[in-house]
Amino acid sequence: MSLTVLVTGATGFIGRRLVPALIEAGHDVRAMTRRPESYDGPGTPVGGDVFDPGSLAEPLEGVDVAIYLVHSLDDNDFERKDAEAAKAFGAAAAAQGVGQIVYLGGLGKDGEDLSPHLRSRREVEKLLGEAGVPVTVLRAAIVVGSGGISWEMTRELVKNLPVMVVPRWAGTRTQPIAVDDVIRYLVGVAGNDDAKDRVFEIGGADQLSYKGMLQGAAEVMHGRKVPILQVPIGTPMLSEWWIKLVTGVDATTAGNLIESMGTEVVQTDFAIRDVVPGEPMTYAEAVRQAIAED
């Protein structure tokens, strides 16, 4: 069934891969961007800014499914900004009769002491549906793919450091997922009645510590392990400046991500595989694909 699908953040890490995949699936896709005149990707460019509620009615008119891929991790006030944007987007979608909002959130159990980053993702989940539009949430941990912030941090650390001394959060378990699997799941739930008003956990084939991720990336990139010493120190502030120094990733973004790295984020519910069948890639496969795209 062909749908009219709006993709916010169409020029971002996920969005620029998702738009062509939705088109290939037979949908009419609107690529929402703040600068539609400079958009040169597939789909129909439409102007809109989730942080400007007055700009949302026009791009959402006649839309069946809206895919929400927006966050403000590069801003110290991201919790407030993302909450206001989600509330405004949900209200505008309801006013235009949108049938479903799909949101890519973050893994982590609700009962745990969530970091500000993960707590904000949970709040956005709720606010998007507050006006009554059915919401489908896909919760993911680190997404591995060329251009993704978490992967770029991993790659640069492995590339630039022959020996690594890592903070204590490097022992926390996570479940990285290949960007192609994320795209497959997003396309699979769009317009799918079995997915509406549901939260799904998505993950790759492997559960690893962050230290294990670094080691696995080193083996794929260099064909060998690199010495990694984990030390029982490392405040978020020290970690974010260490990441910035070695990788060049913005310190605010790195800091907001690092605050989440003390929370174990692994998949415990596999219901997504009943709705969107298929086996996810291993971490090594995801790394090889990311390197091939770099």
Question: Explain this structure to me?
Answer:
Residues 9-142 form the NAD(P)-binding domain. The structure is a single chain. Helix content is 39%, strand content 17%. It is α/β, with parallel strands linked by helices. The protein has a domain at 4-141 and 175-203 and 266-278: NAD(P)-binding Rossmann-like Domain (Rossmann fold), CATH 3.40.50.720. Strands 3-2-1-4-5-6-11 form a seven-stranded parallel beta sheet, sandwiched between helices. 44% of the residues are buried. The model has no long low-confidence stretch (mean pLDDT 86).
Q: Which labels suit this protein?
A:
alpha/beta; seven-stranded parallel β-sheet; two-stranded parallel ribbon; 11 helices; globular
How widely separated are the two ends?
34 Å
CATH class descriptor of one domain: Alpha Beta
Q: Any low-confidence stretches, pLDDT <50, length ≥5?
A: none
Tally of helical segments: 11
Structural shape: globular
- CATH overall fold name of one domain: Rossmann fold
One letter per element, helices H and strands E, the order comes to EHEEHEHEHEEHEEEHEEHEHHHH
CATH architecture of one domain: 3-Layer(aba) Sandwich
CATH superfamily of one domain: NAD(P)-binding Rossmann-like Domain
Mean pLDDT: 86
Strands ordered across the widest β-sheet: 3-2-1-4-5-6-11
Q: Which range best describes the helical content: under 10%, 10-25%, 25-40%, 40-55%, 55-70% or over 70%?
A: 25-40%
Strand content: 15-25%
